[in-house]
Amino acid sequence: MGYLDEQFCQIEDLQDETSPNFAEEVVSLFFKDSVRLVTNIEQAMEKYPEDFNRWDAHMQQLKGSCYSIGASKMNNECTLFRNNCGQENAEGCMRSFQKVKREHAILRQKLESYFQLLRQAGPAGTATRPAGK
Amino acid sequence: MDRRRIRVLLVEDEEIHRVVARAVLRGAGADVDEAENGAEAVRLVRERIGGGGGGAYDLILTDRQMPVMDGHEATRRIRAMGVATPIVAVSSDCLPSDVHAFTAAGADDFTPKPLTKEKLGHILAKFQLA
């Protein structure tokens, strides 16, 4: 499964002459948000043991952010965490939260590399998808 | 003859969702006002219909979960003012009960986040704003 889904392509399609770096700006916003939300979840799990409703509410916000850039793999891990909350499975939550954090770190690395490559390639190097696909 | 640009009120507390939705709306040729919570949305709508703001919005897009006042309450209050502008909930809470709660509050439609060109196209067509 890919890390990003069609929503990321939609974000890139929103780029134009007035907002040539729109995708990178949105991704930066995502990571600014997601770092905060991951910290909130971590703190909630520490300070409020087995408060599954609270944990779930925080994870719902992170999931929402994932949707905005099409972070599908990370989103799936968030869903598993929420399922564990629904089942009141604290150990399951701990395990799935570690996976959420891992996917978050991987995604960050991949997107940083991606945008770095785009910058190196310059405007002429911007990939375009064939029409009709 | 130039087509009048549609006036949209976007009600959303999370910056990333506002940024994406704003770009989608402007890409469709809309003029966008933004509110970060339901109370601000109610104030902007009241201002618009009060005569000082150039007339009612053509479309209101609102999230549910927001600080100060949530989307349900904002929708109820906007409807209580007699405003008939189409209100569409754009929310990540997608259970049937969430959708029902919004329609019970007076919303006309519901679409899951994030707002995309395709979803906006359906909304504009449905309410004859395209």
TrEMBL record, chain A:
GO terms assigned for molecular function:
histidine phosphotransfer kinase activity; protein histidine kinase binding
Question: Taking every annotated instance into account, which residue ranges of this chain make up the domain HPt?
Answer: 25-108
The record's annotation in SUPFAM superfamilies points to: Histidine-containing phosphotransfer domain, HPT domain (SSF47226)
What Pfam families does the database record attribute to this sequence? Answer: Hpt
> InterPro entries from the xrefs?
AHP1-5/YPD1, HPT_dom_sf, Sig_transdc_His_kin_Hpt_dom
Query: What are the entry keywords?
Result: Cytokinin signaling pathway, Two-component regulatory system
Gene Ontology CC annotations of this record: cytosol; nucleus
* Compartments (UniProt record): Cytoplasm, Cytosol; Nucleus
One BP term from GO: cytokinin-activated signaling pathway
User: What is its biological role?
Assistant: Functions as a two-component phosphorelay mediators between cytokinin sensor histidine kinases and response regulators (B-type ARRs). Plays an important role in propagating cytokinin signal transduction. Functions as a two-component phosphorelay mediator between cytokinin sensor histidine kinases and response regulators (B-type ARRs). Plays an important role in propagating cytokinin signal transduction.
Q: What is known of its domains?
A: Histidine-containing phosphotransfer domain (HPt) contains an active histidine that mediates the phosphotransfer.
The record's PANTHER family line, in alphabetical order, gives: PHOSPHORELAY INTERMEDIATE PROTEIN YPD1 (PTHR28242), PSEUDO HISTIDINE-CONTAINING PHOSPHOTRANSFER PROTEIN 5 (PTHR28242:SF42)
Q: What is this protein called?
A: Histidine-containing phosphotransfer protein
- Write down the species: Brachypodium distachyon (Purple false brome)
Q: Which gene encodes it?
A: LOC100825195
